[in-house]
Write a structure and sequence with these properties.
The complex is a heterodimer of chains A (about 210) and B (about 260). With about 210 residues, chain A is of the alpha/beta class. Helices cover about 30% and strands about 25% of the residues of chain A. Chain A is built from six helices and ten strands; from the N terminus they run βββαββαβαβαβαββα. Chain A has helices at about 40-50, 70-75, 120-135, 150-170, 180-185, 205, and strands at about 10-15, 20-25, 30-35, 55-60, 65, 75-80, 140-145, 170-175, 190-195, 195-200. In chain A, the strands form two sheets. Chain A has a six-stranded mixed sheet, with helices on both faces. Chain A has a four-stranded antiparallel sheet with strand order 2-1-4-5. Chain A is globular, with a radius of gyration of 17 Å. Chain B has about 260 residues and is mostly helical. Chain B is about 80% helix and about 0% strand. Chain B has nine helices and no strands. In chain B, α1 runs antiparallel to α2 and α3 packs parallel to α5. The chains are: A alpha/beta (about 210), B mainly alpha (about 260).
């Protein structure tokens, strides 16, 4: 009996100065990527989400991205950019699929949904953007510095929510983070991006 | 009708010159452009007058068609030049030209055959001015709408991509901006229809009245033209914006801003 394909398989992905990147990510994996700004971490996530033209192949449970409509792919491979965008007047207008879990889990009150987007702080936007992404129920989360604007308390809450989501939905995470302590807390695999290539790092070093 | 002599035109030209001299004194840099534009008006209209004279003297479907296509290609270029962030390469030219062909040409032929019913239907005295007015207005509408579409797509690229990231199709992600673009292309003709006769006397009607036509007849023509222009601008704008919105995305529904020229 052949082994089931990994949840996410990336084969020789190349885009401009990025790659080739080959990577297999399994259910429950939390793979952290660090690296200097400009090393191509965000571009890699964009290429995986098929937002930029690229060479190579990305497969979800053995099914290539090119075999499904691009919008289906991006629903399953959810990318959270560092800056969130909002285009409707009220917060609740952006949550058509309902709330994935109570807002209290990320330190927000339910009545924030009635507020105009213009009144949100950057930290509130960041947590709401994560909730909006999770409401799509993606199988793979591509998170680009999801706690950059948050205090330690809320950072902890967000880390817990992401971890619980992964276990509940058999999902996997690729997490761009600049904080070695965060990497030590959340990651089971650790990579560093140098000039467009991914280099595996020892988790023990990350723990140091 | 009072015949105009060339002296009469020179007197009017003197007014433009006075304005140009004034603006030199005010140190505004517009005088050069003003004089060039005035010269272009004189030369271009004189040439068109001669062309029309020849066309009228020699009623021929081939010649009318040739003239119509020359007008179309010039209008297509004009639409392209008026957009700050136009599509690069053939897309920039083809979008406007194809939409004007589909709207202005169709409506002009329809009006000539069904409404005016002249014999032959392509009588240049009707066909060329009608097409000219339709092309001119459709051209503005399309240029405004396409400029708006590409400009907004550039400004709001983060929002469009955020919507793509959340699994929306390109169509859905740009729908709001497509609607706004069509609207901005149609506003001039809607305003013109709303204000016609109250604030402004439309140029064509005024011209007919100056030429001695009975006012009520001139008004009927003006209403006809207004409706044709509204239909032509509306259809042309819809087609152009649809093509433009499609071309902003590739086959994998990625936002392709590199297809736009940087201003």
């Amino acid at each position: 009996m052949s082994k089931a394909p990994p949840l996410l398989q990336i084969n020789s992905l190349q885009r401009l100065m990025i790659g080739p990147v080959t990577l297999a990510v399994d259910e429950g994996d939390c793979l952290c990527i660090a690296g200097a700004s400009g090393s191509g971490k965000s571009l890699l996530l964009r290429a995986i989400a098929d937002l930029d033209p690229h060479e190579g192949q990305v497969l979800l449970q053995g099914e290539p991205a090119t075999d499904m409509p691009a919008n289906d792919w991006r629903t399953r491979i959810g990318l959270l950019p560092p800056e969130s965008s909002w285009w409707l007047p009220l917060v609740k207008n952006h949550f058509r699929n309902g709330m994935p879990l109570p807002l209290e889990h990320v330190g927000l009150c339910a009545d924030i949904l009635e507020q105009p987007v213009a009144r949100l702080s950057s930290g509130e936007k960041q947590r709401l953007a994560l909730m909006r992404l999770l409401s799509n129920r993606p199988r793979v989360l591509l998170l680009d510095e999801p706690t950059a604007n948050l205090d330690p308390l809320n950072t902890g809450r967000v880390e817990r929510v992401i971890n619980e989501y992964c276990h509940a939905h058999k999902a996997a995470v690729i997490w761009v983070s600049h904080d070695p302590e965060q990497v030590a807390r959340v990651a089971n695999r650790y990579y560093e991006m140098c000039a467009g290539t991914l280099q595996a790092r020892d988790m023990e070093v990350g723990n140091g | 009708m009072v015949e105009l002599s060339y002296t009469d035109l020179l007197i009017a030209a003197a007014l433009v010159l006075v304005l140009a001299l004034l603006s030199i004194r005010l140190r505004s840099n517009i005088s050069r452009q003003l004089v060039i534009a005035a010269l272009r008006t004189a030369v271009q209209l004189t040439l068109v007058g001669l062309v029309l004279k020849a066309l009228f003297a020699n009623v021929n479907l081939g010649l009318v068609t040739l003239m119509a296509f020359i007008m179309l290609f010039i209008a297509g270029r004009e639409v392209m030049m008026r957009q700050e962030r136009r599509f690069k390469g053939w897309r920039g030219y083809a979008t406007g030209t194809v939409s004007m062909f589909l709207s202005s040409f169709t409506i002009t032929v329809f009006a000539l055959i069904v409404i005016l019913g002249e014999d032959p239907w392509y009588a240049p005295q009707y066909a060329i001015p009608l097409l000219g007015m339709l092309l001119g207005n459709t051209m503005s509408g399309i240029a405004i709408a396409m400029d708006r579409l590409t400009h907004t797509a550039w400004e709001q690229r983060n929002i469009i991509e955020a919507r793509l990231m959340l699994g929306e199709s390109g169509d859905a992600a740009i729908a709001d901006y497509r609607r706004q673009a069509v609207r901005s292309g149609l506003i001039p003709i809607i305003n013109a229809m709303a204000a016609a006769g109250i604030v402004s006397l439309p140029g064509m009607m005024t011209g007919q009245i100056l030429a001695g036509a009975p006012p009520v007849e001139a008004v009927k023509y003006q209403i006809l033209i207004m409706f044709l222009i509204a239909a032509g601008t509306g259809m042309g704008t819809l087609v152009a914006v649809s093509i433009g919105a499609k071309n902003l995305f590739d086959e994998r529904q990625r936002l392709c801003l590199d297809r736009l020229r940087q201003p």
